[in-house]
Structure formats: structure tokens, C-alpha cells
Amino acid sequence: MELEMLTPATPTIHTPALLSVLGLMASCAMAQTTASPDMRPPPAAVEACAGLGEEAACVFTGPHGEREGLCLAGPDPSKSLACVPTADIPDLTYPILDSGQSQCYDAAGTDIQCPNADEPFAGQDAQHRGWNPVFEDQGDGTVLERVTGLVWQTSPDTDGDGLIHASDKLTYAEALDHCEGLTLGGRDDWRLPDIKTLYSLIDFSGTDPSGTDESTGTDLRPFIDTEHFDFAYGDTTAGERLIDAQYASSTLYVSDMGFDARTLFGVNFADGRIKGYGLDHRSGEKTFYVICVSGNAGYGVNAFADNGDGTVSDAATGLMWSRQDSGIEAPQGLDWREALDWVQTRNAQGYLGHRDWRLPNAKELQSLVDYGRAPDATGGPAIDPLFETTAMVNEAGQTDFPYIWSSTTHASASSRPGANAAYLSFGRALGYMEDGWYDVHGAGAQRSDPKTGDPGDYPYGHGPQGDAIRIYNAVRLVRDLEGTDPVAGAD
After folding, report:
1. pLDDT averaged over the chain?
2. Which of 148, 390, 465, 473 has a Cα at 20 to 30 A from 291?
3. Where are the domains of the chain?
4. CB–CB of 176/192 below 8 Å?
5. For 369-381, how does the pLDDT look when each residue is reduced to its tens digit (9 = 90+)?
């Protein structure tokens, strides 16, 4: 079923791409380089910090000339301070960490060699390196992520018995109290992370186990760095599903889903999704795994500015966006390959004065969501009114707003591991439940669609909550704000 588009709404690298501090030293190009965890900094970078304290200013001469930086601690086995070029730590309040995806895929789900710019499927997630996370284990149950400045509790083992199981899970109210009262690592300013802060930890080198044998989590890879964070799948001995590894955020849905009065957005690090979860069940309140966060309380807050030329800049993330989505030019939507091709066509045209647009990865795209907005609460999409979003008619016959494709493959443990790609829902995240379509996961959910196929093959959606399958979704372009390829006089 293709969905009718209406007029635009009036605005009313556990990471294989992990860059340690040592990797930063070796590469001096954090945003673009992948380093193995056992790399060491150049001797000059270590010598520059001899006799200095952590975070002291330093200067050393490396392969790219003289570099100024800060003395920072590296991971084991080296405990020496090394001079980290400050240019490699972004001066941003809301830097988007890389997705961790390093494999390219085609629409059939087969892994492929990453294509050249003029080849099919060019421009997908694995071909763009963002800010790789720099985790530093503090040795006290906490880990510092250097790029974002966030300090995390490393384990959801709330009862402290050394195991992670169903009894560690907390209700929303308990989670708030747990973080507010937590004293750990010499800190007492812990908080329950909001959904954007929590999502900064998602790692798309994971594989979704949905639909596989749920008797074991062996040979599966979760969507979180297990080198620095403790993780367990759902407690099947307590009757849970393997995928019941939902982590709580502090973000509640602003809309009433129609069957759950209170809904909390959470990240499922077992299956790699954001969904709204109803808090009130007949059997009692829903419970979640919980990890608390400290530091950088402004993380997740955008700083948008309309450039007056069809683009919107975000000084907080360092990203520039197209103000309008693809709905005017492609009103019937685009499948995933078409979405990638649509971007390359715009680059060839010098669209809005630039030739370096890309399809955003899932983490970049999620940064656009305004979780204070939703169709049934504010009458518009879950995005700042600076942006124009093409309206559509959804499966329930309601005026709504589209799913937006990301460049990120949502890999699974199936025989076609790369057949789906992640999207963000800026309108209702519909599902078919018993007698009709409901907003089952909320505006701002991150789910996935098949990259190709016929939506008509899914008249009642897919999965346990009947997620609406559209396949033909919209696109919103992104580029790095400090890009160097403006096109003078472009149409």
C-alpha cells in the first residue's frame, strides 16, 4: 500500500571502529580514522606530558606537524598520559557519536564491498565516519566517554549481586529515585538519561535477534559496547523474551497512545530500537534495565538556526540539514536504494549550494527529533517548526507525517542480515493491534523497514505489535557544518 502525500505541513567505532585516546594519538584524525585498541601514542605525545597532570596543556610534533592538546590518560596497559590534540575533541555541546557500522549491504540483505560514489548503494552508513567514542574506564563502576563528556554507570546490576537478571529491572519511578540517590565514583549528581543521551550509546555493529531461537543469546551481538558496559539479554528463566533488554530513559511521550495512559521512550540494546513502552499493565508497572549518567547536562539540546537558503544549521551537533524533506519531489516515497540515489542526484546538482549531502545515519537523524511534539499533542510532526515536513495519509486514514530513512542498515541474525534499514518516525509509529491501527510506539520511535518490496504484503504490519511496513519513506539531507564544498551559484 502506497501512502498518499499531502501538501507540506506549515511550520506551527564494543565498537570495531572504537578510537581510544591512544588511537587518537596515532591517527591525529579522530573523525575519520579507525584504530585498533592496542595502538600506542607516538613517543613524542607521551614525552610532551612527562611531569604534567591530566588535562594540562601540551605541545608535541607529530606526523602532521606541531600539535597543541591536552594531557589525557590512555587505557590499559599503558597508564602514561599522552598529548591528545584538542582539534580531535569536538567543540560541540551535542556531538553525535559514530554509529559503529562498518559493513556495507545491498537491498537484498547481502553484505557487499562498500561501493564507489557512482555505484549503486553508495552513501550508506559504513562509508561515513563520525565521532568515534572514546571510552575511559574509571575503575570504579563508571566510564567516561571523552567526546560527549558524559560519565556512565557501567552496569544495570541494581541489586549488586554480580548478575543481571529480571529482578534488577526498575519501574519508571524507581529508576528516577535510583539515579537521583546514587553515589558512585565520587559523584552524587547522577540522573536518569533522557532518550537522546541514552541513544548516544547505541552501536549498530549489533544484530537483532528477533525471530531467532530465543533459548540463548550466544553468538549474538548487542547494540552496546560490551567492552565497557555490562549487558544481558532478557531473563528467559523469568519468562522474559530474549529481546526484553529495554533500558529506561526519563523521556515520556507527550501523547496518549489510546491504550496506555503513560508511555516511556526506551532504548532496546538487544534489538537496536527506540520504542515507546506503556508503563501501566494489568500485571503491574513495566520495568526496565537502568544505567545512570552524569555530566554534560546540555547533551541532546539542539541549537538550530535557519540560514534562509533552504538549510538549517545546528551549532550543537555541527550538522547542517535541508529544511524540506523529499516529499514534494518524491510524493510516493522512496525505497532505500532510491533514497541513496536521490541524495547522489542532489549532490550532482549542487543542491542548496552543496555537493556533499548524505543520507543521515540513525544517530544523526534521531538528533532532529523533538520529543516535546507529536501529531496528537501538538498537531504536527516531532521536529522543530523551523523544518518543513510533508504530510501524508497513514494506514488508519489519518493525516500524519512520514518515516524518514537513515543510511543505517538494521542488521539481523537472519539469513538476510542486511535486508532492513533503520528509520525515525516523525509522525505516529503505527502498529496493528487486534481491531485496528494504533500509535503503538510513538512519534520519535526508531524502527526498521525492509529496504525493498511491496508494502501490500504487510496488510496488518509485522512483528508482535504489527509495526506498519511502508518501505517507501522520505529523506532529509544532512552534511557536516564545516564541509568544504559549497557550490557558487547553484540553483
Report:
1. 87
2. 465
3. 21-88, 148-294, 302-480
4. yes
5. 999 999 999 999 9
Q: What is the mean pLDDT of residues 395-418?
A: 96
Q: What pLDDT is stored for residue 67 in this prediction? A: 81
| Cβ-contact 45, 26 below 8 angstroms | no
Average pLDDT (94-108) is: 97
DSSP 10-64: P-----TT---HHHHHHHS-TTT----TT----HHHHHTTTT--TT-EEEEEETT
Q: Calculate the dihedral angle through the C-alpha atoms of 282, 283, 284, 288, rounding to the nearest 10 degrees.
A: -120
pLDDT digit string (tens) for 156-211? 999 999 999 999 999 999 999 999 999 999 999 999 999 999 999 999 999 999 86
**In this structure, are residues 391 and 5 in contact, taking their beta carbons and an 8 Å threshold?**
yes
Q: Is 362 helix (H, G, I), strand (E, B) or coil?
A: helix
Query: Cβ(340)–Cβ(124) under 8 Å?
Result: yes
Q: Tell me if 228 sits within 8 A of 154, measured CB to CB.
A: yes
126: left (phi over 0), alpha (psi -120 to 50) or beta: alpha
Find, among 60, 4, 76, the residue nearest to 28 by Cα. 60
pLDDT band at 64 (very low <50, low <70, confident <90, very high): low
For 185, left (φ over 0), alpha (ψ -120 to 50), or beta?
Answer: left
Q: Which of 20-24, 304-308, 383-387 is least confident?
A: 20-24
In angstroms, rounded to a whole number, what is the distance separating the alpha carbons of residues 258 and 481? 40
Q: Give dist(CA 380, CA 275) in Å, integer.
A: 19
**Hunting for cell 539469513 — which residue is that?**
415
What is the value of pTM for the model shown?
0.84
